[in-house]
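Submission checklist for the structure archive. All mandatory fields must be present; incomplete records are returned to the submitter.

[x] Identifier: Tr-type G domain-containing protein
[x] Organism: Oryza brachyantha
[x] Residue count: 393
[x] Sequence attached
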Amino acid sequence: MAYIMDTNEEERLKGKTVEVGRAHFETETTRFTILDAPGHKSYVPNMISGASQADIGVLVISARKGEFETGYEKGGQTREHVLLAKTLGVSKLIVVINKMDEPTVKWSKERYDEIESKMAPFLRASGYNVKKDVHFLPISGLLGTNMKTRMDKSICSWWDGPCLFEVLDRIEVPLRDPKGPVRMPIIDKYKDMGTVVMGKIESGTIREGDSLLVMPNKTNVKVIGISLDEHKVRRAGPAENVRVKLSGIEDEDIMAGFVLSSVANPVGAVTEFNAQLQILELLDNAIFTAGYKAVLHIHSVVEECEIVDLIEEIDMKKKKDADPKKKKPKRKPLFVKNGAVVVCRIQVNNLICIENFSDFPQLGRFTLRTEGKTVAVGKVVAVPPAGNPTFSA
Protein backbone atom coordinates (compact mmCIF):
# COMPACT_ATOMS: atom_id res chain seq x y z
CA MET A 1 0.00 0.00 0.00
CA ALA A 2 2.97 2.31 0.54
CA TYR A 3 3.42 2.19 -3.28
CA ILE A 4 0.55 4.69 -3.53
CA MET A 5 2.52 7.41 -1.70
CA ASP A 6 6.14 6.19 -2.12
CA THR A 7 6.73 6.65 -5.82
CA ASN A 8 10.48 6.66 -6.35
CA GLU A 9 12.65 3.55 -6.64
CA GLU A 10 14.69 4.24 -3.47
CA GLU A 11 11.51 4.33 -1.40
CA ARG A 12 10.09 1.15 -2.91
CA LEU A 13 13.35 -0.77 -2.51
CA LYS A 14 13.83 0.32 1.11
CA GLY A 15 10.15 0.14 2.04
CA LYS A 16 10.19 3.56 3.69
CA THR A 17 9.26 7.12 2.77
CA VAL A 18 12.16 9.36 1.70
CA GLU A 19 10.57 12.24 -0.22
CA VAL A 20 7.46 14.08 0.93
CA GLY A 21 4.61 12.33 -0.88
CA ARG A 22 1.61 14.41 -1.94
CA ALA A 23 -1.96 13.31 -2.55
CA HIS A 24 -5.47 14.71 -2.26
CA PHE A 25 -8.80 13.49 -0.92
CA GLU A 26 -12.15 15.04 -0.06
CA THR A 27 -14.73 14.46 2.64
CA GLU A 28 -18.26 15.83 2.37
CA THR A 29 -17.17 19.17 3.79
CA THR A 30 -13.40 19.61 3.27
CA ARG A 31 -10.66 19.16 0.66
CA PHE A 32 -7.41 17.82 2.13
CA THR A 33 -3.85 17.66 0.83
CA ILE A 34 -1.84 14.83 2.38
CA LEU A 35 1.86 15.49 2.87
CA ASP A 36 3.31 12.06 3.62
CA ALA A 37 6.48 12.94 5.53
CA PRO A 38 9.25 10.40 6.14
CA GLY A 39 9.63 8.99 9.65
CA HIS A 40 13.18 7.67 9.42
CA LYS A 41 15.83 9.75 11.21
CA SER A 42 18.03 9.92 8.07
CA TYR A 43 15.34 11.94 6.30
CA VAL A 44 14.33 14.45 8.99
CA PRO A 45 15.16 17.46 6.72
CA ASN A 46 12.51 16.15 4.27
CA MET A 47 10.09 15.70 7.17
CA ILE A 48 10.70 19.35 8.16
CA SER A 49 9.86 20.41 4.58
CA GLY A 50 6.54 18.53 4.75
CA ALA A 51 5.57 19.61 8.26
CA SER A 52 6.28 23.28 7.53
CA GLN A 53 3.39 23.24 5.01
CA ALA A 54 0.85 21.45 7.25
CA ASP A 55 -2.01 22.70 9.42
CA ILE A 56 -2.87 19.35 10.99
CA GLY A 57 -0.45 16.60 11.99
CA VAL A 58 -1.46 12.94 11.96
CA LEU A 59 1.11 11.17 14.13
CA VAL A 60 1.00 7.46 13.36
CA ILE A 61 2.07 5.31 16.33
CA SER A 62 2.49 1.54 16.14
CA ALA A 63 0.64 -0.41 18.84
CA ARG A 64 2.86 -3.45 18.20
CA LYS A 65 4.95 -4.40 21.23
CA GLY A 66 8.43 -2.89 21.01
CA GLU A 67 7.70 -0.58 18.05
CA PHE A 68 6.02 2.16 20.09
CA GLU A 69 8.73 1.89 22.75
CA THR A 70 11.55 2.29 20.17
CA GLY A 71 10.07 5.51 18.80
CA TYR A 72 9.17 6.92 22.19
CA GLU A 73 12.41 6.29 24.11
CA LYS A 74 15.01 9.06 24.46
CA GLY A 75 16.43 9.87 21.02
CA GLY A 76 13.48 8.12 19.30
CA GLN A 77 11.82 9.54 16.18
CA THR A 78 8.37 9.93 17.75
CA ARG A 79 9.82 12.44 20.22
CA GLU A 80 11.74 14.45 17.62
CA HIS A 81 8.79 14.54 15.21
CA VAL A 82 6.38 15.85 17.85
CA LEU A 83 8.81 18.60 18.80
CA LEU A 84 9.45 19.54 15.16
CA ALA A 85 5.73 19.53 14.32
CA LYS A 86 4.99 21.96 17.17
CA THR A 87 7.93 24.21 16.21
CA LEU A 88 6.93 24.21 12.54
CA GLY A 89 3.41 25.43 13.29
CA VAL A 90 1.39 22.22 13.28
CA SER A 91 -1.01 23.40 15.96
CA LYS A 92 -3.46 20.47 15.86
CA LEU A 93 -2.39 16.85 16.29
CA ILE A 94 -4.24 13.59 15.74
CA VAL A 95 -2.44 10.66 17.32
CA VAL A 96 -3.61 7.51 15.52
CA ILE A 97 -2.61 4.32 17.28
CA ASN A 98 -2.20 1.97 14.33
CA LYS A 99 -1.84 -1.83 13.98
CA MET A 100 -4.51 -2.37 16.64
CA ASP A 101 -5.57 -5.49 14.65
CA GLU A 102 -2.09 -7.04 15.11
CA PRO A 103 -2.25 -10.56 16.67
CA THR A 104 -0.27 -9.52 19.78
CA VAL A 105 -2.54 -6.48 20.36
CA LYS A 106 -6.04 -7.61 19.23
CA TRP A 107 -7.70 -4.23 19.92
CA SER A 108 -6.49 -4.28 23.53
CA LYS A 109 -7.84 -1.37 25.58
CA GLU A 110 -4.94 -1.83 28.01
CA ARG A 111 -2.35 -1.33 25.25
CA TYR A 112 -4.23 1.70 23.85
CA ASP A 113 -4.50 3.29 27.31
CA GLU A 114 -0.82 2.58 28.02
CA ILE A 115 0.30 4.41 24.87
CA GLU A 116 -2.08 7.35 25.45
CA SER A 117 -0.98 7.72 29.09
CA LYS A 118 2.70 7.84 28.05
CA MET A 119 2.19 10.19 25.11
CA ALA A 120 -0.07 12.78 26.79
CA PRO A 121 2.49 14.17 29.29
CA PHE A 122 5.16 14.29 26.57
CA LEU A 123 2.83 16.17 24.18
CA ARG A 124 1.99 18.60 27.00
CA ALA A 125 5.70 19.18 27.66
CA SER A 126 6.21 19.82 23.93
CA GLY A 127 3.74 22.72 24.04
CA TYR A 128 0.45 21.07 23.00
CA ASN A 129 -2.80 21.65 24.87
CA VAL A 130 -3.71 17.95 25.05
CA LYS A 131 -7.39 18.51 25.91
CA LYS A 132 -7.99 21.10 23.19
CA ASP A 133 -5.55 20.41 20.35
CA VAL A 134 -4.80 16.67 20.47
CA HIS A 135 -7.08 13.75 19.54
CA PHE A 136 -6.25 10.08 20.16
CA LEU A 137 -7.95 7.24 18.30
CA PRO A 138 -7.31 3.56 17.44
CA ILE A 139 -7.15 2.39 13.81
CA SER A 140 -5.98 -0.37 11.53
CA GLY A 141 -4.41 1.20 8.43
CA LEU A 142 -4.03 -2.20 6.78
CA LEU A 143 -7.74 -3.00 7.02
CA GLY A 144 -8.99 0.62 6.94
CA THR A 145 -10.78 0.11 10.27
CA ASN A 146 -12.07 3.29 12.00
CA MET A 147 -10.76 5.54 9.24
CA LYS A 148 -13.59 6.52 6.89
CA THR A 149 -16.45 5.09 8.95
CA ARG A 150 -16.90 4.26 12.63
CA MET A 151 -16.01 0.69 13.47
CA ASP A 152 -18.49 -1.91 14.61
CA LYS A 153 -18.68 -2.85 18.29
CA SER A 154 -17.98 -6.45 17.25
CA ILE A 155 -14.45 -5.37 16.28
CA CYS A 156 -13.73 -3.18 19.30
CA SER A 157 -16.31 -3.17 22.10
CA TRP A 158 -14.75 -0.40 24.19
CA TRP A 159 -14.38 2.35 21.54
CA ASP A 160 -17.40 4.59 21.00
CA GLY A 161 -15.56 7.65 19.69
CA PRO A 162 -15.32 9.08 16.17
CA CYS A 163 -13.41 7.73 13.16
CA LEU A 164 -10.42 9.52 11.61
CA PHE A 165 -12.39 11.39 8.90
CA GLU A 166 -14.86 12.71 11.49
CA VAL A 167 -12.00 14.09 13.59
CA LEU A 168 -10.38 15.69 10.52
CA ASP A 169 -13.66 17.36 9.53
CA ARG A 170 -14.22 18.83 13.00
CA ILE A 171 -10.79 20.38 13.46
CA GLU A 172 -10.66 24.16 13.14
CA VAL A 173 -7.47 25.23 11.38
CA PRO A 174 -5.91 28.67 11.98
CA LEU A 175 -7.35 31.44 9.84
CA ARG A 176 -5.06 33.27 7.43
CA ASP A 177 -5.67 36.62 5.78
CA PRO A 178 -6.92 36.35 2.17
CA LYS A 179 -6.55 40.15 1.83
CA GLY A 180 -3.02 40.27 3.27
CA PRO A 181 0.21 40.61 1.26
CA VAL A 182 1.01 37.54 -0.83
CA ARG A 183 3.45 35.12 0.80
CA MET A 184 4.09 31.73 -0.82
CA PRO A 185 7.33 29.91 0.09
CA ILE A 186 8.46 27.89 -2.93
CA ILE A 187 9.18 24.22 -2.21
CA ASP A 188 9.89 23.10 -5.79
CA LYS A 189 9.90 24.26 -9.42
CA TYR A 190 9.88 22.74 -12.92
CA LYS A 191 9.57 23.72 -16.58
CA ASP A 192 6.28 23.15 -18.41
CA MET A 193 5.54 25.66 -21.21
CA GLY A 194 6.83 28.27 -18.76
CA THR A 195 8.13 28.12 -15.22
CA VAL A 196 5.94 26.40 -12.62
CA VAL A 197 6.49 26.86 -8.86
CA MET A 198 4.91 24.77 -6.10
CA GLY A 199 4.08 25.78 -2.55
CA LYS A 200 1.46 26.67 0.03
CA ILE A 201 -0.03 30.16 0.14
CA GLU A 202 0.50 31.45 3.68
CA SER A 203 -1.07 34.87 3.16
CA GLY A 204 -2.98 36.79 0.50
CA THR A 205 -4.72 35.63 -2.68
CA ILE A 206 -3.01 34.81 -5.99
CA ARG A 207 -5.01 35.50 -9.16
CA GLU A 208 -4.37 34.77 -12.80
CA GLY A 209 -2.81 37.88 -14.35
CA ASP A 210 -1.27 39.14 -11.08
CA SER A 211 2.14 40.82 -11.09
CA LEU A 212 4.27 39.47 -8.23
CA LEU A 213 7.89 39.35 -7.05
CA VAL A 214 10.11 36.33 -6.65
CA MET A 215 12.26 37.08 -3.61
CA PRO A 216 15.08 37.43 -2.65
CA ASN A 217 16.27 38.09 -6.21
CA LYS A 218 13.52 40.72 -6.74
CA THR A 219 12.41 39.36 -10.12
CA ASN A 220 9.10 40.73 -11.44
CA VAL A 221 6.87 37.92 -12.69
CA LYS A 222 3.34 37.50 -14.04
CA VAL A 223 0.94 34.72 -13.04
CA ILE A 224 -0.22 32.96 -16.23
CA GLY A 225 -1.85 29.92 -14.63
CA ILE A 226 -2.84 28.38 -11.27
CA SER A 227 -3.48 24.69 -10.58
CA LEU A 228 -5.13 23.21 -7.51
CA ASP A 229 -5.22 19.41 -7.16
CA GLU A 230 -4.42 19.14 -10.89
CA HIS A 231 -7.41 21.39 -11.74
CA LYS A 232 -6.91 24.83 -13.28
CA VAL A 233 -8.41 27.69 -11.26
CA ARG A 234 -8.54 31.48 -11.68
CA ARG A 235 -7.44 32.25 -8.10
CA ALA A 236 -6.31 30.58 -4.88
CA GLY A 237 -6.19 31.78 -1.28
CA PRO A 238 -4.43 31.08 2.02
CA ALA A 239 -3.72 27.47 3.09
CA GLU A 240 -4.04 26.19 -0.50
CA ASN A 241 -1.25 24.00 -1.88
CA VAL A 242 -0.88 25.22 -5.46
CA ARG A 243 1.19 25.15 -8.64
CA VAL A 244 1.64 28.62 -10.12
CA LYS A 245 2.84 29.10 -13.70
CA LEU A 246 4.95 32.25 -14.12
CA SER A 247 6.29 34.27 -16.99
CA GLY A 248 9.34 36.55 -16.66
CA ILE A 249 11.67 34.06 -14.96
CA GLU A 250 13.50 30.85 -15.88
CA ASP A 251 13.24 27.80 -13.62
CA GLU A 252 17.04 27.74 -13.11
CA ASP A 253 16.77 31.19 -11.47
CA ILE A 254 14.52 29.83 -8.70
CA MET A 255 15.53 27.77 -5.66
CA ALA A 256 13.52 26.07 -2.91
CA GLY A 257 13.24 28.65 -0.14
CA PHE A 258 12.51 31.58 -2.45
CA VAL A 259 9.17 33.28 -1.78
CA LEU A 260 6.48 34.46 -4.17
CA SER A 261 5.54 37.84 -2.78
CA SER A 262 3.38 40.90 -3.42
CA VAL A 263 5.08 43.84 -5.13
CA ALA A 264 3.68 46.55 -2.83
CA ASN A 265 4.60 44.73 0.39
CA PRO A 266 7.44 42.30 -0.35
CA VAL A 267 8.84 39.75 2.07
CA GLY A 268 12.10 40.72 3.82
CA ALA A 269 15.39 39.36 2.43
CA VAL A 270 18.21 39.29 4.99
CA THR A 271 21.55 37.74 5.92
CA GLU A 272 21.18 38.44 9.66
CA PHE A 273 18.34 38.44 12.15
CA ASN A 274 17.63 38.26 15.88
CA ALA A 275 15.89 35.20 17.25
CA GLN A 276 14.61 33.76 20.49
CA LEU A 277 15.96 30.22 20.76
CA GLN A 278 15.25 27.33 23.07
CA ILE A 279 18.23 25.00 23.31
CA LEU A 280 17.02 21.39 23.35
CA GLU A 281 20.03 19.12 23.60
CA LEU A 282 23.47 19.95 22.24
CA LEU A 283 25.86 17.31 20.97
CA ASP A 284 28.27 15.94 23.57
CA ASN A 285 30.96 18.46 24.57
CA ALA A 286 29.38 21.23 22.42
CA ILE A 287 29.11 24.76 23.84
CA PHE A 288 26.45 27.14 22.56
CA THR A 289 28.25 30.46 22.23
CA ALA A 290 29.16 33.07 19.60
CA GLY A 291 30.76 31.18 16.70
CA TYR A 292 28.45 28.14 17.03
CA LYS A 293 27.54 26.76 13.58
CA ALA A 294 24.44 24.78 12.59
CA VAL A 295 21.98 24.22 9.72
CA LEU A 296 18.94 26.52 9.75
CA HIS A 297 15.56 25.17 8.58
CA ILE A 298 12.94 27.91 8.16
CA HIS A 299 9.84 27.29 5.95
CA SER A 300 11.43 25.79 2.78
CA VAL A 301 14.89 27.33 3.40
CA VAL A 302 17.85 25.16 4.37
CA GLU A 303 21.01 27.26 5.03
CA GLU A 304 24.19 26.97 7.03
CA CYS A 305 24.27 29.59 9.77
CA GLU A 306 26.42 30.94 12.57
CA ILE A 307 25.50 32.42 15.94
CA VAL A 308 27.34 35.74 15.94
CA ASP A 309 26.15 37.18 19.26
CA LEU A 310 24.31 36.06 22.39
CA ILE A 311 22.21 39.07 23.41
CA GLU A 312 20.21 37.96 26.44
CA GLU A 313 19.41 34.81 28.39
CA ILE A 314 15.76 34.66 29.47
CA ASP A 315 14.75 33.02 32.73
CA MET A 316 11.26 31.80 31.83
CA LYS A 317 10.28 31.12 35.46
CA LYS A 318 11.22 34.62 36.60
CA LYS A 319 9.59 36.08 33.49
CA LYS A 320 6.22 34.58 34.49
CA ASP A 321 6.43 36.00 38.02
CA ALA A 322 8.01 39.33 37.09
CA ASP A 323 6.38 42.68 37.63
CA PRO A 324 6.21 44.30 34.16
CA LYS A 325 6.81 47.75 35.74
CA LYS A 326 10.16 46.67 37.17
CA LYS A 327 12.56 46.31 34.28
CA LYS A 328 15.67 44.37 35.14
CA PRO A 329 18.94 44.74 33.23
CA LYS A 330 19.54 42.18 30.48
CA ARG A 331 21.73 39.19 31.30
CA LYS A 332 24.23 38.92 28.44
CA PRO A 333 25.76 35.43 28.62
CA LEU A 334 29.04 34.12 27.20
CA PHE A 335 27.47 30.70 26.62
CA VAL A 336 24.26 28.79 27.42
CA LYS A 337 23.42 25.16 28.26
CA ASN A 338 20.73 22.65 27.36
CA GLY A 339 17.22 23.91 28.13
CA ALA A 340 18.21 27.59 28.08
CA VAL A 341 16.14 30.25 26.32
CA VAL A 342 18.32 32.90 24.69
CA VAL A 343 17.97 35.86 22.35
CA CYS A 344 20.78 35.76 19.82
CA ARG A 345 21.86 37.10 16.44
CA ILE A 346 22.09 34.60 13.60
CA GLN A 347 23.99 35.11 10.34
CA VAL A 348 23.71 33.21 7.05
CA ASN A 349 25.87 33.37 3.91
CA ASN A 350 23.07 33.93 1.38
CA LEU A 351 20.02 36.19 1.42
CA ILE A 352 17.00 34.38 2.87
CA CYS A 353 13.34 35.42 3.02
CA ILE A 354 11.95 35.57 6.55
CA GLU A 355 9.48 37.59 8.63
CA ASN A 356 9.02 38.39 12.30
CA PHE A 357 7.17 35.53 13.97
CA SER A 358 4.59 38.01 15.32
CA ASP A 359 3.70 39.11 11.75
CA PHE A 360 3.86 35.84 9.78
CA PRO A 361 4.39 32.81 12.07
CA GLN A 362 5.00 30.40 9.16
CA LEU A 363 7.91 32.52 7.91
CA GLY A 364 9.27 33.22 11.38
CA ARG A 365 9.66 29.85 13.14
CA PHE A 366 12.64 27.59 12.61
CA THR A 367 14.84 24.77 13.82
CA LEU A 368 18.62 24.46 14.13
CA ARG A 369 20.15 21.07 13.37
CA THR A 370 23.68 19.75 13.48
CA GLU A 371 25.06 16.34 12.54
CA GLY A 372 21.57 14.97 11.96
CA LYS A 373 20.14 16.13 15.28
CA THR A 374 17.73 18.95 16.16
CA VAL A 375 19.57 21.03 18.77
CA ALA A 376 17.33 24.12 19.05
CA VAL A 377 13.97 25.58 18.04
CA GLY A 378 13.27 29.27 17.68
CA LYS A 379 11.35 32.23 16.34
CA VAL A 380 12.46 35.38 14.54
CA VAL A 381 12.04 38.44 16.77
CA ALA A 382 13.77 41.18 14.75
CA VAL A 383 14.78 41.60 11.12
CA PRO A 384 16.81 44.48 9.64
CA PRO A 385 14.87 47.34 8.04
CA ALA A 386 14.08 47.05 4.31
CA GLY A 387 17.02 47.84 2.07
CA ASN A 388 19.53 46.86 4.75
CA PRO A 389 19.91 43.05 4.83
CA THR A 390 22.20 43.13 7.90
CA PHE A 391 22.10 44.93 11.24
CA SER A 392 24.60 47.64 11.99
CA ALA A 393 27.13 46.74 14.66
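[x] Structure attached
Curator remark: The chain has eight helices and 22 strands. Residues 1-18 have pLDDT under 50 and may be disordered.
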